[in-house]
Specification:
By secondary structure, the protein is of the alpha+beta class. The chain contains 13 helices and 11 strands. The chain is rod-shaped and about 180 Å long.
Length: 500
């Protein structure tokens, strides 16, 4: 699949997933806001109804105290009014059973008018008196109510019972706690009430508002968030699944790009390997054909030259095969290693002595500076030798043709019982973007128009792997056109744990 198609699919799927997540999150937010608004409306309605019930209960309390006095006063008024009102017998003659026909007669007009006026005056006096009594009752309620202790006007048990009923009537069957305050000073509260809770989570209403009371009823709902989100919990799994699918998609795309990059690097590896192996094989094959010539066999000098060529190309072929074999060690290093206590100074000195001839062939110089007092490390000696050899080989391979190669290998002590090994050159150097990738398998630094630099891209990956297995670390500093410096830090061997 082409890289452009992969990028197109990545962009389209990414936009699709992001849009899906956006709509789901927006829907979830709107649902939460709506449920929170409904909860707040129901809570405030319940609290206001509770306040109304408390106010009516207080009114009933005072009415029960004054009703007896009102009834007595009303009875006395009726009795007085009854003495002055005309009786029915005075207005009409009531027939008596068994006494013959009834004869009706009418009182004199003057007496009737006087009785009627007296009746009206008595009714008005009764009305004024009763209205005065009611006004006294109302004033008594307002005055005495304000003087009553709040614990008598609104006790905790009554508030709890009434509020629970009102909340249930509004569909809010949730735990709650409350407090009665006076100018934000708590008079009493339930044990669960938290005064430090965010004010947005507290619902309040004024108690006995018609009597200008300063008391407030404040109610908290500790499980409000659970109640709200429980109603939209069916959306959360879909959101989680969408996020999971997005993560899987991103991971899949990363793997696709890595596999494509790995495929390209393996193709380069096969091409390089074919070229690297083909050249010495062709040279050896040509030398073998020359040996079949009788004139060549009769010349000792020619035979000596051909034997040197075959020997050199055989070494080159063996070296390239070892490079490929390092790949298997790279994949499964622990199973093929033989750890022993090694004197790093002696091992490095041997590698430097062998490699110096190759550096001098290009007119350069290789120097070993031994500044390490303690250099016993616990490693696989053969693999450690290969690590140093690979770094020196890279330094020569990526040399600067305009100057003579100068290589310096330095060992030194560092704190924490560690050994530092530094390999510095004056080669072509590397760009900053290459420094992050040089330890990746099959990665090869671009060398411009130079075609004499061959390899599989395994050398530095192998070095990094081996140093890590040895319990150390490797870093590199490089500047394009000025050279590079590789630094290895390895822990010193503990003779008690790692006997030689």
């Amino acid at each position: 699949m082409k890289k452009s198609i992969i990028w197109l699919l990545t962009v389209v799927m990414g936009i699709t997933f992001c849009a899906l997540l956006y709509f789901q999150i927006t829907y979830l937010e709107n649902m939460v806001k709506m449920r929170e608004s409904q909860f707040s409306e129901g809570a405030m309605r319940s609290i206001y109804r509770t306040v109304g019930v408390l106010e009516r209960r207080e009114t009933m309390h005072f009415l029960e105290q004054d009703i007896r006095m009102l009834n007595n006063s009303y009875a006395d008024t009726e009795e007085e009014a009854g003495n002055e009102l005309l009786t029915t017998e005075e207005l009409f003659q009531i027939p008596q059973p068994g006494k013959g026909p009834v004869i009706s007669y009418r009182l004199p007009t003057e007496k009737l008018e006087k009785r009627y006026n007296d009746l009206q005056e008595t009714i008005w006096e009764q009305y004024v008196y009763q209205r005065g009594l009611l006004n006294e009752v109302i004033l008594s309620i307002l005055y005495d109510g304000a003087r009553r202790p709040v614990l008598e006007r609104a006790d905790a048990d009554t508030i709890r019972k009434v509020l629970a009923v009102e909340l249930a009537n509004n569909g809010l069957d949730v735990p709650f706690s409350f407090a009665v305050t006076d100018n934000n000073t708590i008079i009493y509260s339930t044990n669960e009430y938290d005064p430090d809770l965010n004010e947005k989570q507290i619902y309040a209403a004024r108690l006995f508002p018609n009597s200008n009371s300063r008391y407030e009823l404040k109610v908290e709902f500790p499980t409000k968030a659970n109640y709200i989100y429980s109603s939209v919990r069916f959306v959360i799994p879909t959101l989680a699944l969408s996020i999971l699918l997005l993560a899987i998609f991103i991971f899949t795309m990363i793997l696709a790009f890595r596999q494509k990059k790995l495929g390209e690097m393996k193709t380069d590896f096969i091409n390089n390997m074919t070229h690297e192996l083909k050249t010495p094989i062709s040279t050896i094959s040509l030398a073998a054909q020359m040996l079949n010539d009788d004139s060549v066999r009769k010349s000792p000098e020619t035979l000596h030259h051909i034997s040197e060529v075959i020997n050199a190309e055989s070494k080159r072929l063996r070296f390239q095969v070892e490079k490929v074999l390092q790949m298997s060690v790279f994949e499964n290093s622990n199973s093929a290693l033989n750890f022993t206590c090694v004197d790093a100074n002696k091992t490095i000195a041997g590698v430097v002595s062998t490699f110096k001839l190759k550096v001098e062939r290009f007119g350069g110089n290789l120097t070993f500076i031994n500044d390490a007092d303690e250099a016993i490390i616990y490693v696989d000696e053969m693999q450690f030798t290969n690590v140093i050899f690979n770094l020196l080989d890279n330094a020569v391979k990526y040399r600067n043709d305009e100057v003579e190669p100068e290589l310096t290998v330095t060992t030194s002590d560092i704190e924490g019982k560690k050994l530092r090994i530094s390999i510095k050159d004056n080669g072509i150097g590397m760009k900053k973007e290459d420094l992050k990738k040089i330890f990746e398998k099959f990665y090869r630094v671009h060398t411009g128009n130079r075609h004499d630099v061959k390899g599989f891209g395994l050398g530095l990956a192998y070095v990094h792997r081996m140093v890590t297995v040895f319990g150390g670390s490797i870093s590199v500093e490089s500047e394009l056109g000025k050279g590079s410096e590789f630094t290895i830090e390895l822990p010193l061997a503990d003779p008690l744990k790692n006997p030689n």
